[in-house]
């Protein structure tokens, strides 16, 4: 029923360049000492912009009456649970053993953007990550299978994870990027634009980000159990490519990459540097429940190789720091899970470290230094007044 969209999404997933499996002799020598992990939320209902492109608005509103616009669906909740299972398998006692089976606040930091879909995603994921052990079971009913796990969220207007909506310089850079792209990479879609305008009433030349908005509408409809419109089926392969190009506009310039991913990169470098100096660092697993643009931004500033297409709902990207048991040297490994519960995670490579299983931390730090952005500088750059 959904074969058209399925093929396009599969092509997007496999286009991410994955590294080769790492040999056991290398893995056995490496101890994970730090991980920064970003997930995209689970499947959601359409947002208002997407709904405005639909010719079935009333039908979609009726289908989303419970969740509301942008709400996490039941499919999305199941996806979130798979994210938590992945985190437990990779970072828990049966995996890299960076966290305990017990929830211990000194071991983990959890942050979400202040959106219902991301907050609900991390809540469900934590249910899978930390099913309560006997010591943390708090009653004879639900307390035996679930426990509360805290997370942090800050106002959208002050959140560096929402750089694309709250940072005025980024907005200006995006405006220029859109104008340039219409004259360059989007010229190949000149024949598609009049068709889409006739079908949706919107001018995609004025805002090429509408390609991604329309493609996301299709994905949301599929998540709600609807087929995509008949008119869209023959256009979908090209629409998917246009959507990917639209997504790439968020990382068109180095300054856009720095604003988008520089704070996360800076925090990773600071924690890793402290570890390299033998300092005590708590919360060595740091989780961020966020959006596709956050995954892309961190991948960009970390110089991860690959054709970075739009992350699927439930995608997970991690920057992991390892310490060699034999030499004491630190190395960085990027890991990508295309969609929790559907595909296995794979190691990626970093530009400049293509032939290495783990990129030397010192080399990684040198190669990425131009993108570092301390959080207080983000607020200054973006003109955000905050007491955070």
TrEMBL record:
Residues 1-19 form the signal peptide. This is acid phosphatase. It comes from Loxostege sticticalis (Beet webworm moth). PROSITE patterns: HIS_ACID_PHOSPHAT_1. Belongs to the histidine acid phosphatase family. The keyword Disulfide bond applies. The keyword Disulfide bond applies. It holds the Pfam family His_Phos_2. Gene3D superfamilies: Phosphoglycerate mutase-like. Its EC number is 3.1.3.2. It catalyses: a phosphate monoester + H2O = an alcohol + phosphate. It is an enzyme of class 3 (hydrolase).
